[in-house]
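Course assignment 3, question 2. Fill in each field.
Student: A.L.
Task: Predict the tertiary structure for the chain below.
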Amino acid sequence: RTREYVEIVRKVIARDEPVAFEGNHYTLPHPGGTGLGKPLKSTLHPLRTDIPIYLGAEGPKNVAMTAEIADGWLPIFFAPKDDG
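Answer field:
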């Protein structure tokens, strides 16, 4: 889910076009919607479109995924090993 979520957030921040997404966990616009609403497009105009996305993750698989899809890692309960 995190991988899809980050992809959606990047599309919203980019503001290139109304956000449409179809993944395993998220679909935009919502398939059960009435069709009367507008596609998702941020009303905010960020000063830059390359806003970094940081993820808090623990466990080897989540940290590895964070390295793939995010711009930074916020370690949770992380203590470096003391090699003495």
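Instructor remarks: The mean pLDDT is 86. Strands lie at 21-22, 27-28, 54-57, 72-75.
Grade: pending
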